[in-house]
Amino acid sequence: MHRQALVLLLIGITFAGVHTQGRKRTCKPNEEFLHAYYPRHDAFCKPWLALPTEVNKLHWCLCKQGYVRNAWGVCINMTDCLSCKDKPFQDFNHCGSKCPLACGKPIDKKCPHGCVTGCSCGPGSVLHPSDNKTCVPGYLCPPQCPRFSSFQICTPVCEATCDQPEPRECRTRCHNGKC
């Protein structure tokens, strides 16, 4: 009985390995496909800044050698990672907001599109009220939200409407937060 179970287990592992080897190898920039039987966790520049869902995510594509994931899960080189080492609530971001969230200030609805490269407040962090170079946790000092709303780090990508009270594809996004 035990021998049959062991044989079935080995066949299953072999089949799973063959299945993953046949996966489509589409990785993002600075990532490489993992040739293994199972996905793995990746290294982060500042894991304490990244949301647990990001840190605990299993990847088939890992950052290339000399790269680590930033707080948003994007692979960045170690030089960029180290450029933010003295900024506790900031991590390097190739595409940060031109209008970062600020403590006690309204969210800028007319923010121009585009990216700012450099150290950005990590997910759930906002700019300090008196210093535009320091970030603080958003729960200690959230941005100012309109009446009857509150600042949330994780928000649904889709919203319920009268016509569709339960949208079909609704995912939660946990990156910058919004009211």
UniProtKB/TrEMBL annotation:
<dbReference type="InterPro" id="IPR002919">
    <property type="entry name" value="TIL_dom"/>
</dbReference>
<protein>
    <submittedName>
        <fullName>Putative scavenger receptor cysteine-rich protein</fullName>
    </submittedName>
</protein>
<feature type="domain" description="TIL">
    <location>
        <begin position="89"/>
        <end position="141"/>
    </location>
</feature>
<dbReference type="Pfam" id="PF01826">
    <property type="entry name" value="TIL"/>
</dbReference>
<feature type="signal peptide">
    <location>
        <begin position="1"/>
        <end position="20"/>
    </location>
</feature>
<keyword id="KW-0732">Signal</keyword>
<keyword id="KW-0675">Receptor</keyword>
<dbReference type="InterPro" id="IPR036084">
    <property type="entry name" value="Ser_inhib-like_sf"/>
</dbReference>
